[in-house]
Amino acid sequence: MTTYFNEMFQDGRVRAPYAGLEGWTNDMPADRRLAKQAEAEALFRRIGITFAVYGEGGDPDRLIPFDMFPRVFTGAEWARLEKGIKQRARALNAFLVDVYGRGEIVRAGLIPARLVYQNEAYEQAVSGFTPPKGVYSHIVGVDIVRTGPTDFYVLEDNCRTPSGVSYMLESREMMMRMFPDLFRENRIEPVDNYPEKLRRTLASVAPLKCEKDPTVVILTPGHFNSAYYEHSFLADLMGVELVEGQDLFVDGAFVYMRTTQGPKRVDVIYRRIDDAFIDPLCFRPDSMLGVPGLMDVYRSGGVSICSAPGAGVADDKAVYTYVPEMVRFYLGEEPILKNVPTWKCAQNDDLKYVTENLAELVVKEVHGSGGYGMLVGPKSTKAEIEEFRARIMADPSNYIAQPTLALSTTPTFVEEGIAPRHVDLRPYCLVGERIELVPGGLTRVALREGSLVVNSSQGGGVKDTWVLAE
Amino acid sequence: MLLTVDHVTRYRYDHPVRGVVQSHRLMPSRFDGQKVIDWQVTVAGGVAGGAFRDGAGDWVQGWTVAGPVSEIEVRVTGTVETTDLAGVLKGHRETAPPEAYLRATAATEADAALVELSELVTGAENVLAGCHALAAAISEAIAYVPGSTTADTTAAQALAQGEGVCQDHAHALIAAARAAGLPARYVSGYLQAGTGVSDEAAHAWAELYVAGIGWIGFDPANRCCPDARYIRLGSGLDAETAAPIRGTSRGGGAESLAVTVAVQMQEQ
Amino acid sequence: MLSRTADNLYWIARYMERAETAARLLEVGARISLLPTVGGYRNDWDSLLRASGNATGYAAKYGAPAQAQIESYLFFDRDNPNSVASCLTSARESGRIVRTALTTQVWDALNTAFQELRQIESARGVQELSRLTDWVMRHTAMVRGAIDATLLRNDGYNFLNLGYYLERGDSTARLMDVKYYVLLPRADYVGSGLDNDQWSMLLRAMSAHRAFHWAYGGEITSAKIADFLILNPQCPRSLITCVAGMNNHIGRLAKHYGQTTPAQAAAARMLSELERLTADAIFDEGLHEFLSRFIRETAGLGGVIHDSYLSGDMH
């Protein structure tokens, strides 16, 4: 029987970061809790916040369940996480600059050329280009799980356009509105300056040709997109325009947006659309979401695109296994955050091990996301395992396997009262002229008892994430 | 050899369009086999946009034309001094690694027939000899029949029907070479073939990467390697990404296209 | 402001006003059909469809006019872009796109109307027509009220108001034109009791009959009506009020942006023409002819506003 690290209770005692919450829960009668829960849901619905982690699909108008029990880190715990995340974000960006430049890490034989240059996310169109400040991925979302007091593992990196940050901000807003006392009694680091930090980060990577205060915009695929709420939420808080492809056009060497006062030049585009749709002249010619000619302007230094096209090659699940190598190679440091040991089914020895131990492992598709196309061995029936085995054998290189991690739990409000549920964490690291991280992130919780899958499409919810001031 | 080029592309729209955006790869490549004496690209009524040298060493230039406009003329004129290097792309500076040209695209996906052809390379004792054998086999397998294929015809389709034009020859050669594990790419340019004006002077061929030598051009359509009669403009994974002109218009009606190309040897 | 944002704001207003017009048309139609039939005049519902510009769409779908089908066409039909349901849905969708340019109150009002519409749709056929039209009036007023009470007086506010005034002017002209179609074949009805009943219903449908009596008193005559609904700046739905409103908001845009466009001149021209007009001159031209011309000119002004601010193609 696996034992799980409970972030609040250890050996019958309350761990330090949660001390401020013990009395709070003891004093909360069930009816008040239910009333508060209903209040929270009504507020979310009223604001119209809807949410879907990218690629999960599903009903775009649905609410994600919000759990009021916060997840807490001490300042010291956070300091170490922060250092590890920033280190990873630096290494990933160094890797991107390298593989679109001289490719030193490939020449050094540390990562197979095939994995990089034949990767679907590798964009030939940006080969030989270094974006302003050498940054490809301006917002790095690092998914982290905890298995013990000091044991943190990185599950995956998100270098393109990680979503969910609006939920981090709204969860905090909700908690402060409903439980102001908690914030008076506990010294909790604020996260509400994230939009301002994001705006500054984006402005700091303005192209060379931009001589004035840069004009930043967010480019959305449109109001039918599942994350449209987040796009408009961030644009509003940052005080920038939320544009669609049709609002932008190229004239000469620059990009402009169509306004009621005529064309206005745009310097930095925070895009929430995929590479393939950015510019029909360069990528998919049938794209109606992008801006024709944008890539020529980008490569000639007339506009910045965040994240840079091609950044996805760094967050591929097969490339993931080499991130510790990247940290050593580019930074000359030892990785602070651990990778989950990974078997690549493309390799015969690994494949043999994986097929012999399916009942203990988690198997994922290399390009899959959102908890689909995935086998959680210990939680699966014999039949499910056998069915998955056949899928792996049919196309081994499409799968990797990892040990089933004993994800930590935090107390969570459930129907019967309070019970431990498994959680993960996605902090958002901002990379521009400086590397910054707001203290906190998005904590996702698997609301189903015993479930290890935190994705919102599979019964996951979110919590407010606290970092206590030292 | 001194080659002069006069290449005119005329776009006509049956209703005026609100604007046109284009991306050009129309500058001769810089390598030991060619030297630009003079070269000019003009777009009537257009504004030259951003320009840069990409990872493959091509000079890319953006253009925009503000509407309303019903006709656009892109004119390329110039003189290039060429040298026969037996197809070898010597002295060409590029940052993109050859491995980046192993990826198949929709047009260059290898089917069973193309994989079978690729054995001419994998089975050969000498890779270079294998490449020549493969190029020759493609020439045999696909007869040059203008109008027998379209811009969207894939390598596998062209091989199956046994007819095609230079684009199909190049695609088939690229697909088979990649199936053999050789990096391969599509090259667009000009060819001085006889005298007079024709649209066949706008030409395309393939380059294969042979370790120890580098990129080598093969022109299955003409059963040879590019020599002093060829001017190289740009390259890509397939015809679409290597196109000398990629463009789009906003609003308006149907577009019709007229191209004339004259490539002539200049008396020295 | 992004042209697309301005365009969405402008259309929120036009759709809300258009929903209200559809409801008012339904009310006029229902009331006219309660009058005793006098041989010789045209089918009332038919005239109503024609005047509102819905005749072609309706005929394509249903053929001959029948009351129940017309009600459904003007209120529920999603295939009819001018139906109440289509307009409220489009207005709410535009609101969602420009959510950050609206206040919570305005969004709430738009969203609530939409959510209630869905309930009404699922219980179709249960409610009486008059309750439905009242419901529309209430919600359009709530959105309008939220805009006036909470929105910043910036360029977006001006685009919203342009949409309202333009659509309202168009709708007043069309509602008046219903009368023309009803009475066309029998000139001898003019000035008769029947004539007055019909004018009175028209005023009622515009929630303007009390106001009319306060302003004019005595007999209802077509001259008084024309004066009230076309030339009287006190009437909130009169053509001159709508054109003056457009003129005002277009002027504010010029001031706000520090630059004028062809839209300012076009609006000023329309206003000065109306200001010089008399009821006699209108009847000399012919009421129907005048109204048709006004509808055309309003559409023209809409085009100029589009080209000057909303299309995004200005340089």
Give an overview of the whole structure.
The complex is a heterotrimer of chains A (470), B (268) and C (315). Chain A is α+β, with helices and mostly antiparallel strands and 470 residues long. Chain A has 2 domains: 389 residues, no CATH class; 63 residues, Dna Ligase, domain 1. Chain A is built from 14 helices and 23 strands. Chain B has 2 domains: 100 residues, Immunoglobulin-like (Sandwich); 159 residues, C8orf32 fold. Chain B is 19% helix and 43% strand. Chain B contains 5 helices and 12 strands. In chain B, helix 3 links the parallel strand 5 and strand 6. Chain B is globular and about 60 Å long. The model of chain B has no long low-confidence stretch (mean pLDDT 93). Chain C has one domain. Chain C has 15 helices and no strands. Chain C is globular and about 55 Å long. Chains in contact: A-B, A-C. Chains A and B meet through helix 5, strand 8 and helix 10 of A and strand 1, strand 3, strand 4 and strand 11 of B.
Whole-number radius of gyration of chain A? Answer: 22 Å
Unreliable segments of chain A (pLDDT under 50, ≥5 consecutive)? 52-60
Would you tell me the structural class of the helices and strands of chain A? alpha+beta
CATH architecture descriptor name of the largest domain in chain B: Roll
Distance between the termini of chain B: 8 Å
Helical residue percent of chain B?
Answer: 10-25%
Q: What does the secondary structure layout of this molecule look like, with pairings?
A:
The complex is a heterotrimer of chains A (470), B (268) and C (315).
Chain A: E1 9-10, E2 13-14, H1 19-26, H2 30-47, E3 66-73, H3 75-99, H4 104-107, H5 113-117, E4 139-146, E5 152-158, H6 165-178, H7 180-185, H8 194-204, E6 216-219, H9 228-238, E7 241-243, E8 248-251, E9 254-259, E10 262-266, E11 268-271, H10 294-299, E12 304-306, H11 317-320, H12 323-331, E13 338-339, E14 343-344, H13 348-356, E15 361-365, E16 374-376, H14 382-394, E17 399-403, E18 409-414, E19 417-426, E20 428-431, E21 435-437, E22 442-446, E23 460-467
Parallel strand pairs in A: 3-23, 5-13, 6-7, 6-11, 11-12
Antiparallel strand pairs in A: 1-2, 4-5, 4-20, 8-9, 9-10, 14-17, 15-16, 15-17, 18-19, 19-22, 20-21, 22-23
Helix pairs in contact in A: 3-12
Chain B: E1 2-24, E2 34-43, E3 47-53, E4 59-82, H1 112-122, H2 127-141, E5 143-144, H3 155-161, E6 163-164, H4 166-179, E7 184-191, E8 202-210, E9 214-218, E10 230-236, H5 239-242, E11 245-250, E12 255-265
Parallel strand pairs in B: 5-6
Antiparallel strand pairs in B: 1-4, 1-11, 1-12, 2-4, 3-4, 7-8, 7-10, 8-9
Chain C: H1 3-32, H2 44-51, H3 55-62, H4 67-75, H5 84-97, H6 104-122, H7 129-150, H8 155-183, H9 193-205, H10 209-215, H11 222-231, H12 239-257, H13 262-276, H14 279-285, H15 287-310
